[in-house]
Structures are given as C-alpha cells and as structure tokens.
Amino acid sequence: VNPSDVIILEGILLFHDSRVRDLMNMKIFVDTDADVRLTRRIRRDTIEKGRDIIAVLDQYSKFVKTAFEDFILPTKKYADIIIPRGADNSVAIDLIVQHIRTKLGQNDLCKIHPNLYVIQTTYQIRGMHTIIRDAATTTHDFIFYADRLIRLVVEHGLGHLPFREKQVITPTGSVYTGVDFSKSLCGISVIRSGESMENALRACCKGIKIGKILIHREGDDGKQLIYHNLPKDIAKRHVLLLDPILGTGNSAVQAISLLLEKRVQEANIIFLNLIS
C-alpha cells in the first residue's frame, strides 16, 4: 500500500485477524438492523439476480444469518466506533470526519510516533539547509554543507544505540565511569543517494561494515529490489539504514522489509534521513 494521508480498509471479516487490527488507528463497525439487511438482500436477489423469494429466504435462514452471527457479529467487540443505521447516521459520520481532520492537522509527528526523532533546529542548521536548498549554490559548497548536515544526523543516530556502563583509568590514575556503545553495528546504504552518507558514518565509526541495497523504481508506485549485499551476521547487529532523501517512502519500506526478512530485529533498525 502506498503511503497516503488516509487509508480505508473495508470488509465484513476485517476485524477477524489481530494482525490487521493492530495496524488500524480507528476501527468502525457499521451496524444495520437485521430486518433492513434482509430486505436489501431480497430486493437485490429478486430484482438483479432473478431469484425466487422463497429460495432467498431459505438461503438466508440456513446460511447467511448463522454465518453472520457466528463470524461477523462477534468481531463487533473490537470496534472503536459502532455506527447504527449505516450511511443514514449523518451525526456519527460527521464526528468521524472531524476526528480525521483533527489527526491530519497534527503537524508534530514526534508526538504521534514516539520512535521518531528530529534534530533540534538551530540557526546554524537552518543556515546550512538554506545553502543546500538554494539553486544558485555551487557544487563545492553543496557537498561541503551537505556533509556537515549528514555528520550531525549520523551523530544523532548513534546517540540512540544501546550503551553500557564502563569504567576506565584516567592518566591521573583516577577512575572515570563512562559508557561504551554497542560493538555489533553496521551501516546499510540505499543506493544511490545513501552512499553520500557513508563517509560521515566511517568518520564516526572506524572500520564499520557497510552493506548495500539497490531498489529500482518503475512508474509512480512501482518498486523492485534489484541487488543487496549485506553482512552475513546482520541479524546480530544494530543497523543504521542510510537514505538522505525520503519522498514517498516506498524505498524505505522495502529496505526495512528486506532487513526484517534477514531476521534483523525491528528495534535494532535506525533509519537516518536528511530531508523528508
């Protein structure tokens, strides 16, 4: 599914699978009176399908009604909102629309997604963004200031790695209690733009292993994994996924899906991005 502001899933057994329910921000059960449902079925089957009304009632009582009560009605308990009378309930529909508009109006994504971190904006950072976004900027200046920004992103990402306490002896002989970050670390760049972040990562982490993922785009929403070269023990490592430009998010989704297929823990993936 391509990234969108609102994604609507519809189906009579949609709430049956807990994996699907967990992906939903709002679950709505449209409830309609049994007599109304039966009337609609009789009208549809007799007019559109030319069936006999006795056959329609017989099928309804033997199969349709029991299937509804056994499989569909129990999923009603998973709903956040139950709308009686369906489309005729304009008040309930208006409340849902207002809720969606409120959610779409929340511009601070960090409050919605606790695992999203944005570097605090300073005049220095805004100044460098101004330079790299200026069409008149020379290639030399663009590379210089883009590398500075990427270095800040990498340093910020490293700060979210797990650390453990470590004591060392200083040159004066005193004990200093500090921290030591995870040694099982690797970087994965999404070719080709992700390679622009590799130098900054190498400068921060000496001798770090870096893998590659190439995703070829076909059309506006098409995507195809062409090539990947990952460390053999990547499942045991924390991964810094490098992709400076985030547009639709399709490449990031497929890259993360590949890492999950390689048994990398989702909590061990840190996605580093410069411009979204």
UniProtKB/TrEMBL annotation:
Full protein name: Uncharacterized protein
CDD domains in the cross-refs: PRTases_typeI, UMPK
Pathway, per record: Pyrimidine metabolism; UMP biosynthesis via salvage pathway; UMP from uridine: step 1/1; Pyrimidine metabolism; UMP biosynthesis via salvage pathway; UMP from uracil: step 1/1; Pyrimidine metabolism; CTP biosynthesis via salvage pathway; CTP from cytidine: step 1/3
Family: In the N-terminal section; belongs to the uridine kinase family. In the C-terminal section; belongs to the UPRTase family.
Keyword terms of this UniProt record: Allosteric enzyme, Glycosyltransferase, GTP-binding, Kinase, Multifunctional enzyme, Nucleotide-binding, Transferase
Organism of provenance: Aegilops tauschii subsp. strangulata
GO terms of biological process kind: UMP salvage
GO molecular function, one term: kinase activity
InterPro entries, A to Z: P-loop_NTPase, PRK/URK, PRTase-like, PRTase_dom, Uridine_kinase-like
Cofactor: Mg(2+)
Boundaries of every Phosphoribosyltransferase domain copy: 121-275
All copies of domain Phosphoribulokinase/uridine kinase, residue ranges: 2-91
Pfam families assigned: PRK, UPRTase
